[in-house]
Amino acid sequence: MATDIRIDYYPTHEHEGIKFRRGHALPFGATMVPNGINFSIYSSAAISCTLVLFERGEDAPFAEIPFPEEFRTGNVYSMIVFDLDYERLEYGYRMDGPFKPEEGHRFDKSVILCDPYAKAIGGRDTWLATPNWDDVYPYRSRLVFEDFDWENDHALETPIEDLVIYEMHVRGFTQHPSSGVKNPGTFAAIRSKIAYLKELGINCVELMPIYEFDEWENSRENPATGGLIVNFWGYSTVNFFSPKAGFAATGKFGMQVDELKTLIKELHKHGIEVMLDVVFNHTAEGDHRGHTISFRGIDNKTYYMLTPEGYYFNFSGTGNTLNCNNPVVRNMVLDCLRYWAADYHIDGFRFDLAAILGRDQNGAPLSNPPLLESLAYDPILAKCKLIAEAWDAGGLYQVGSFPAYGRWAEWNGKYRDALRKYLKGDEGMVGEMVQRIQGSPDLYYYRGPTASINFISCHDGFTLYDIFAYNEKHNEANGENNNDGGNDNHSWNCGVEGETDDPEINRLRHKQIKNALTLLMVSQGVPMILSGDEMATTKGGNNNTYCHDNELNWVDWSLLEPKQDIFHFAQRITKFRRAHPVLRSATHFEHRDYVGSGYPDISFHGTQAWQCDHSESSRCLAFMLDGAHAKRGTILDDTIYVAANMYWDALYYELPVLPEGKKWHLAVNTDMPSGQDIFEIGKEPMIEDQQRFLVGPRATIILIGK
């Protein structure tokens, strides 16, 4: 019996032996359809469009097919091309139109343009392989195949208050020779370290940019060292839908998509969520002096914020600013995030310089930014975590005031600054510390403590070790005369700038790292640590290592042995947080007893019980969490008492009296040597004096009432 074949399987046009017909306007990008590929691209001002087809790796295209005018619907060009070799195909576009920068148009039909919706990019398949600078089309759009077997995998949907986030750079995490992995610096290599992440107590990795970017961007020789300066961090996107081939061991075979999906599936199997650091504030095309790769040549006026004279607004500090609240660009961002959530099972997104996403096309902050609202209410993203870096390079600082719609959390920069100042002994910090410890209710009263992503260090700035080893930044290796990077580090070198053989200074630095990890893990909100901080990695005082593909950014795994006291402590303090639900509240404290235990849910103390000293000279803070208020299902927690003494002498802290039958037990004392500084859950020794405790100089203790 004859099989009915749809009429639109057949071509209606032919060009140089290639058959095609009118396509579907949606979806944008290249989509496989029966017998062919549907190509669709938008431009509001182009007067014509040509599809350019390459065999993979070939210098010259094998065909260029102009879109017939009748194939344009509104401002969308679409066609189906038949009988193409999907696996060997690379494609791009030429756009013709006015070159009038003063009117916002920069069309140039001599340039072959990458598809903004391409799901994979070819041409830069191996990290730092020297490009062919004469290539007529360096970033080549490719198709991907939906043949990956996810088995039963899905996004984990772990409650955000239960996360311990670990920020890492894919290459930097395993590239160091000491990592001991096969294929270092790749997605595949991270799989070899999953057991390590589990041992550390991590249940969420936040990957610094993994979209296709150009590591050769602004590359140059370092005048100080002779080494190569590159775009290592990757905050300069070439294409938002494509994982970076250079981060894949199989990238040279075009298998980066499957390699990344395999990593995500393996992390999920071990209960570890995956967040992506996404950069929708600017692109790699830079300002008017930059390369035309994609957006500029397709529709410059739509994709970028432009001044009335046609120049680029630069709220990102990198040359241009994506016009995210234009409806077309907004839809692209939504399509992109939906794609990562649906096709890659991503659990959440951290938005770089997210304040930009709330600016209108002229750069003014919007009171109700449509993109942020759309992301908050999008049905596909409904279970994804959304985290904002709530500031930008144009001076818009929105920590505590970022438009949240009940969904957005924030990197809490005020938490970072307050903790650093308190730890180094600044005066007048106790009052602010009371807020930060509670999940910053002064900032997030209506949003709950889970709106606060708490961190003391991240990729941008000093490592945790360097906060206590350097008073000043040392960025000479960046080749910018130490002018780059922030000057407000709130750091303290403990008496000597940089490395030292002085055992007392080194002991103090280790104690300060433990103080920082302790306060981070007992704070309400969501803790985040920087990869390598658990073994006291250093960047030599460089607080802006964006340009280094070397030991400044590579985690040095050989430190695990000499710094095992730090790793041991980090491992146990994350386990301590996980063991005590009272540390992970989804709602703010009420400062009262609402369960009839005789104690408020939280109370603040000083060297005297029930009396918190907020005076300018005070460096003493203690607080007690009543475990009876931590009910989750049927869980009742222990009482937890934390005392932090950032004074330079030991001080006695009077202890609150426990209910009859309970005694104070020592869980943490950062003033003690390794082995006695933190105890296993359930093995905390009872302290002899139940009335008071001598807290050492610049030390933190945790007591458990049980």
UniProtKB/TrEMBL annotation:
GO terms for biological process: glycogen catabolic process. GO terms for molecular function: amylo-alpha-1,6-glucosidase activity. Transmembrane segments: none annotated. This is Glycogen operon protein. The lineage of its organism: Bacteria, Pseudomonadati, Bacteroidota, Cytophagia, Cytophagales. Keywords: Glycosidase, Hydrolase, Transit peptide. The keyword Transit peptide applies. Belongs to the glycosyl hydrolase 13 family. Its EC number is 3.2.1.-. SUPFAM superfamilies: (Trans)glycosidases (SSF51445), E set domains (SSF81296), Glycosyl hydrolase domain (SSF51011). It comes from Rhabdobacter roseus. The keyword Protein transport does not apply.
